[in-house]
Amino acid sequence: MGDSTALAGGRQGHERLAELIPLVLQGLAAGTAERAAPGPAGGPAPVAASVAALEPLVPARGVGAEKALSELTALLAAGSVDPADPWCAAHLHCPPLAVGVAADVAAGALNPSMDSWDQAPVASELERAFLAAIARQCYPGASEPDAVVTTGGTESNLLALLLAREHQRQPVCGRNAHHSVARAAWVLGLRTPLLVECDGERMIPASLDAVLRETGPAVVVATAGTTNAGEIDPLRELARICRRHGARLHVDAAYGGLALCSETLRPLLDGIDQADTIALDMHKFGWQSVAAGLFAVREAADLKALTVRAEYLNADDDTEAGLPDLLGRSIRTSRRPDAFRMAVTMRALGIDGVGELVERCCATAREVADAVRRHPALELWGEPTLSTVLFRPRFGDVARVRRALLETGTAIVGRATMAPGEVWLKLTLLHPHASAADYLGLLDAVAARAQAPEGAVAS
Ligand SMILES: *Cc1c(COP(=O)(O)O)cnc(C)c1O
């Protein structure tokens, strides 16, 4: 048995990794083969039993690296829902690209921590250059845009409200806004966001205008890619209203932001560069493992609010001597080099390559929507804007259909309540290699399940 205490880095680290990584890959293959469907069958009980069988999970005497890795990797693969299966389509839960996952091995082995230059010399420089490219992509016309890495839309939205708090702003958002916006206001001790009415899933400009007329200095959160339906607020018009009222504008483009990589889809985000700040997630479109969030600002100076001094990490004399000050690039201290795998991926595919994958998902969504429209037993909520398709069986208990598919592991389908008591099924299509044909069987399975008597086992 090999040495379980061997290190991943140093001159020999790669040799031990070369022994262990094949075990991880074998475990992935074995566990995935064990699970015939995108998810484990039987719901929570058998999954819990598979973990309970390992008790004590954390033994007094270790089982060794080989056994622990093989066993737990196979268990993980067998009991996971796998977004690389097209029928795993409930959430903004993407199948990560192999190139990004492979890059993360290097990041994990070297473990640069992004809170000071002396822990991450080249990783921090790569991050800086990568973020500069992202900032230019978001703000092509701005003279000094900037961006930072976050854990996702939740942290990006928190940063947006935090920067706005520097100017005593009342949060305002659409009824379509992500729940993290209200939570960020709560965390920051700001007042509860004022809500703007929506038409369907898009903020109504006149309603925003009316709200801003009544309130003092505000920060408005618009959404580009709503969680329920993937809809995009009329950004340019909202930006114009914000400017008229002197309000700050944050665009939560956690879902839709990477459409900026596509010449064809970019017009959907028209006006986004008028925002003061933008949230984008590369763990949605961007095909990174969680967490891969980005937060862009039109004016780099806005990020000065995050400045903090900790003598051991960014002493004044070190900074004056030319060591980059990284501490003010996040509200975290120790921080993973998540920008590394994002940079490797964007360099491998190019902006156009990423844009093409986004286009494919959106095209597939439109085709799946057409198939729903043609299906005699199904009904479509509306034409998809991005890659979300909302539909439901014409008859039957929609929520029960979703649970039945989940319990058999057949398909992982989402849900969205679009009006009080009105539950729809949701496909959030992020599989870049799936085509509409891959979903036709799923539509039939939903229809069949809706017609099956309660308690019958779905096929
Ligand atoms: C996913 C998402 C969030 C939350 O982001 P996390 O990455 O899960 O923290 C916020 N807003 C929108 C619109 C999203 O799609």
Automatic annotation (TrEMBL):
GO cellular component, one term: cytoplasm
Keywords from the named record: Aminotransferase, Antibiotic biosynthesis, Decarboxylase, Lyase, Pyridoxal phosphate, Transferase
Pfam families for this protein: Pyridoxal_deC
Cofactor list: pyridoxal 5'-phosphate
Membrane spanning stretches: none
GO annotation, biological process: antibiotic biosynthetic process; carboxylic acid metabolic process
SUPFAM superfamilies assigned to the protein according to its UniProt record, in alphabetical order: PLP-dependent transferases (SSF53383)
Residues where N6-(pyridoxal phosphate)lysine is found: 284
Origin: domain of life: Bacteria
GO molecular function annotation: aromatic-L-amino-acid decarboxylase activity; pyridoxal phosphate binding; transaminase activity
Record has tRNA processing as a keyword: no
Coiled coil: none
Family indicated by similarity: Belongs to the group II decarboxylase family.
Protein name in the entry: Aspartate aminotransferase family protein
Originating organism: Amycolatopsis alkalitolerans
Upper classification of the organism: Bacteria, Bacillati, Actinomycetota, Actinomycetes, Pseudonocardiales
